Amino acid sequence: MLDLKILTQALGDLEEDLVMEMLKEFTDTSPSEAEALEAVAACQAGMTIVGELFEQGEYFVGDLIFAGELLTEAINALKPALGGGASVVIGTILLGTVHGDLHDIGKNIFKSMSEAAGFEVIDLGIDVEVDTFVKKAQEIKPQIIGMSGVLTLAINSMKDTVEALKAANVSAKVIIGGNPVTKESSVFVGADAFTTNAAEGVKICQGLV
Question: How far does the signal peptide extend, from start to end residue (predicted)?
């Protein structure tokens, strides 16, 4: 039986071997998708610990990067239980961290989970210019455009991008995510949906297609 609290703490402590060992034992039991989502949530809670320790000066940028890589590794280990075997593409998501923001941990988690759910995800990376979003959206015609940001200034970049997409007659639904995102900021930006939780974001996207 997977102890979610121990898993959370292990990820928070950056104990890669313990995290991966626990997840291997867990996936060997053929868990349900709901149980796998609980494991994902426990891993995400571990990232909260990492963030707090970084703010307190206990962890450094290198630790943050390692934590993001560990989280991606953990999600990949859980993919089979999350329906990662999906061969039918249910929709395309164009994804990126908006102009002026260099954070990608949350974006990468969302990408991994979306792919596990059957989406094709085109990731533009970080600090994505407005024009880049517009041109790529016109080229691939995604059903959904996901914008991520951690800094407060990201909200204005999101708004600029949404306005440019609408001006270019791009009809994709827009979901925004990240720490500063609220219902109010979502309305300000002009997005169709918002989330601060990757698992919830995937469910929203499933509803949008």
Answer: none
| Residues with Cβ within 8 Å of residue 15, at least 6 apart in sequence | none
Q: Which amino acid is at 21?
A: E
Tell me which H or E stretch contains 113. helix 105-116
Token output for 163: 């306005």
pLDDT tens digits for range 135-152: 999 999 999 999 999 989
Nearest to 201 by CA among 41, 2, 7: 41
Residue 104's φ and ψ, nearest 5 degrees, are -140, 5
Considering the segment(s) 4-82 as one domain, its CATH architecture is: Orthogonal Bundle (1.10)
Domain 91-208 - what CATH class?
alpha beta
Q: Write down the pTM of the prediction.
A: 0.69
Closest CA to 108 of 80, 142, 144, 67: 67
Ranges of CATH 3.40.50.280 domains, the chain: 91-208
